[in-house]
Design goal:
The protein is mainly α and 207 residues long. The chain has one domain (5-17, 50-72, 79-198). It has 8 helices and no strands. Helix 1 packs antiparallel against helix 5, helix 2 runs antiparallel to helix 3 (81-108) and helix 2 (52-71) packs parallel to helix 8 (188-197). It is elongated.
């Protein structure tokens, strides 16, 4: 429904900064990053009767501002490791808050009026909750990194990029439902988000 704008933009930005932030790259790698929608508890089928386009419009309209924040390139001073770290920590806090708002928007819209719509919502919100958990873990790792230790900080930057690049697009779970995908293609706010997302990955830092 909202395509790949959100997590794709964050992952691309993160990976670019990780490669350029402190110069060079390292092999630090395991990461606790994005898991799939693992432990969602589905609650049966969804309903008929109701307007799926209106439901999609309500969700997309509610997340417009948050999606815009996710597609913004953070202002990172790569010439100063301490400032780069602080900028990334602030950025991750903003992203985490936006993901939280997106979870609330989907839940507040109620069950989608399509077959198996609630299952799609459960999977999407579980994926978003997993993404937020990963974001918060990476934020904590970065926040605790020693700014005066270039090697440790570079490892933190690289882990940041690795973890963020593993985050998938939770809205794929909504698009997997054919009726919700079709509704999202008709809802004006969803179409606007999809159009604005088509070039989002090009906004990553290049220095």
């Amino acid at each position: 429904m909202v395509r790949r704008l959100a997590m794709a933009a964050v992952a691309a930005t993160a990976f670019s900064i990780a490669l350029t932030g402190c110069g060079g790259s390292s092999n630090s790698g395991s990461g606790t990053g994005g898991s799939s929608a693992g432990n969602s508890s589905t609650s049966g089928g969804g309903g008929t009767g109701g307007d799926a386009v209106a439901w999609s419009e309500k969700v997309c309209k509610s997340v417009v501002d948050d999606m815009a924040k996710l597609s913004e390139t953070p202002d990172i001073d790569t010439s100063d490791p301490a400032k780069a770290k602080a900028g990334l920590v602030t950025y991750l806090g903003t992203v985490s808050g936006s993901v939280d708002n997106m979870i609330k928007a989907i839940k507040d819209a109620g069950p989608p009026p399509v077959k198996d719509g609630q299952q799609a919502v459960d999977k999407a919100t579980a994926a978003l909750e997993d993404a937020k958990k990963s974001l918060d873990q990476v934020k904590t790792t970065l926040d605790n990194a020693n700014s005066s230790d270039p090697a440790a900080l570079q490892d933190a930057f690289t882990k940041f990029g690795d973890d963020m690049s593993k985050l998938g697009d939770p809205f794929d779970d909504l698009d997997a439902n054919k009726e919700l995908k079709a509704a999202g293609e008709k809802a004006p706010s969803c179409k606007k988000l999809s159009d604005s997302g088509s070039g989002s990955s090009s906004s990553t830092p290049t220095t």
